[in-house]
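Hey,
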Amino acid sequence: MAWTPPPRAAWVDKLVAYGRGLGDDGRSLVSLDAEELLSAGRAATGLDDAGDDWFRDPMERLCRALDDEAELHLAGRLRARAELQVILQNRLRLVDLWKREPAIDEEEVRNPIIVTGLGRSGTTLMHELLSCDPANRPALLWELLHTVPGGVSPPGVARDGWIKIADDEITVMDEMVPAFTSMHENAGHLPTECIFAFAHQFSSDMFTGIYNVPSYTIWKSGADQTPAYDWHRRMLQTLKWAPPDGRTGDERWVLKAPSHLGHLPLLFATYPDARVVMNHRDPLRVVGSLADTIATLHWMHSDRVAHDIVVEFLCMGVEIQMNGIAEVRDSGTLPSDQIADVVYKDLVADPIGTVKRLYDGWELELSDEALARLHAYVDARHTRREVAEHRYRFEDTGLDLAEHRALVSAYQERFSVPSEV
């Protein structure tokens, strides 16, 4: 099926044309060489030590894939370099902080609530609902991109300034392709995914979703992610050691990433007392939504989008993953009493009731303040959905419904997931 890309902003098309006029799509202007990026990060921060060397291999693989496979236009190269530079500079500053403040390693991350599930299965909704409770502590986007202790920013820049910087960095994606706003909401002050923490080890689904980098994606699927989870924990320890204004450091972490779904044993090895919320939705409905979202992300950064290949890759990955989830859940190797299943249709039909049921199962108190915030959030969300809603169809994938329904039916039966297409 032909995929029609949504309109891009006029300034993006002008940059694309400028890069094309150079004859190299901006390679001569914007380097994505790994060593050059690291040197630039060191020069910008005045810091030399980037910590453990594990990140170098994934970073080099990613940069090569961006140059050799992603077919980035000039606007895409600019955004890729800026994104990598933000992460590198934050990494350098964190390593410096950890050397100066060894007490950070003594901080404990206790009983985190971690939301996972297929992308587009309501994980963001579940995460933001749980974040309404003041007893819970989400990781905010600005904190994972510009991590600073105690809510005090580097000299000369106020905390609110860093929130605005992070907001500008992430919302430029909405400006590049305005339709993306209806697909996923991002902002500097909002709860965000753990992929931004994993990105500091350069092994993250953040990169596989945004760019067409198949060699990197294949490498990542088989690599041991323990170093990425170790870094994830240290970032949480850092934020707990010096919580931002209004936090005590005693709140429960509430975290979210669909990528946790493929690493549940490692997740529990890192956080043995975690409570995991696993969202479930019709995988074929998910494929249609994810394919449109990923193709749009590719279109932000490249003129060449292979929507059919995106669909094929996603469908294969989702079918294998969901069969694997059923197997690992039934293997007896995971603490089943620490995993709560939430079906998407139940969540959207009664979001507040879903949270109440989770809290009852965990024997946690849901305070009056938390309930009031939940009701305010749900009311505001209904208003936002009336303004902009992501529209997509399974038919646009070109897949045979009966063939692929058979491949996911065992998963649906195991977790009582209704079909949506």
